Amino acid sequence: MRRLWTDILRVMTKRLIECVPNFSEGRDLSVIDRIREAIEAVSGVTVLDVDPGHSTNRTVVTFVGPPEEAAEAAFQAVRRAAELIDMRRHTGEHPRFGATDVCPLVPVSGVSMEEAVHLARRLGKRIGDELGIPVYCYEQAALQEERRDLAAVRAGEYEGLRDKLADPAWRPDFGPTLFNASAGATAVGARGFLVAYNVNLNTTSTRRANAVAFDVRERGRAKRSGDPLTGEIVRDGDGVPVMIPGSLEAVKAIGWYIEEYGIAQISMNLTNLDVTPLHVAFDETRRKARARGLRVTGSELVGLVPLSSLLEAGRYFLAKQQRSLGVSDSELIKIAVRSLGLDELSPFDSREKVIEYAIAGDADELLAIMPVASFVEETASESPAPGGGSVAATVGALGAALGTMVANLSAHKRGWDERWQEFSDWAERGKGLHTALTAQIDEDTRAFNAVLAAYRLPQRTDDERTARADSVETAIKGAIDVPYRIMELALESMTVIQAMAEIGSPSSVSDAGVGALCARTAVLAAFLNVRTNAGECRDRPWTAERLQKGEAMQREAIRRETDILAIVQRALG
Predict the structure, then answer these.
(1) What topology is assigned to 371-572 in CATH?
(2) Which of 43, 59, 306, 498 sits a CA distance of 20 to 30 A from 425?
């Protein structure tokens, strides 16, 4: 894993919309390629994933971009799909009613749901007006409450669309009421992050897969009198079927047979990962399948998944093993992939499947992922950056990492099994600190470059001189804040390091000592950078406060180092 949260944070400061259109074509790759070309022709838009399915005859495309550009790319994709896909000839396992069946907009960063809703409705109107395709708005963009649920909007599918359009109750939100035989209709929506997730079963029976799907999905199944399978459906006073809810909230699910894999799957949409995370859906499905004599053999992600979902899953499965959770993100992802069986049907590449990594793109220019020798050589070069700040962050990260290592080793020490949670908590705290310090390695260089860029601004007029002075002041404060943050993080890491020197595995006490030396060095080294940049800042009260607190942190780091080394010396005899 050569992707770091450092680059993800940088990317996530941008205003981004994700769009996940589903096209009713999964077999003719030339059609899919031409739709992708239409998307990529829009500047600023990046295609993250193209996932065709042969049995479903459906392709899910995931792309991101700034709001206006993403909406434009979505429109061009719908236009191209209408030109290339004829619904009169379409068959497939998945419910559908249009060439572009659904087109949801998902706010990723810097964009509110309200803005996404406005953008989706504008997109829907344009599709209806310019392409002559009936459009229904769903989820958060729904103009009528009964159209919020996609299943209700798409009920009857393509085959029932002509009659649906003739029903005044189902007049489209945008576009004509006339039946577009070739393009069908399109559902345009705005929603939170949805994960399309399939769980694999050791059966070929769609009926049995559906039974498990009904067990777990929020909507559940219709209540029947007498026999639960063949009995008459029980209805309320309005004639609406009475439903027995399933066990998982915010989950939609159906069962199907996938010929290319030779297995049945439970196809799920996890619509709120805070309510039902990935690992909860997997374990509950496994439990319900076992009750029906079936076995879950693995699972499959369609499209992309947030990094947090895999990290949470990794921690969940490690906790079940009573193992420390304070391991690297890459290790957590490996545990999640193995436990969920995400690589059963095809290799799982986190660089392609995790949305943050896919958005981040190539991060090879970052200092933090350089080999050690390359980082040393880059530091020794004639360039003033990386400099002391980046080195201070590196040393601090190493110190925190050593404290984390002792905690992880202690969690797995023979005879200390009952203390695994105690040390796991320390390891997680240490991991958070060394991750944050690692991020500062590149932040320090960015802050330095921002100062240089501010000094290069023109100053021909009074307005330009004022703007330049303000930019320089802002950049200087940033160049002070980064090493100041390094001091805070490194000092906080000494709490973890001291705890590990006192209660951690005795065989690793010297590692805690080295960690203390690194942390103290990071605090003192970063303070030198604070002092250097403080001299150029015009805001003297602000600077004085930073220097006063910095001196206090420096004294505290020296004191803690002395205390920790005394513990280490006693342990070493």
Answers:
(1) Four Helix Bundle (Hemerythrin (Met), subunit A) (1.20.120)
(2) 306
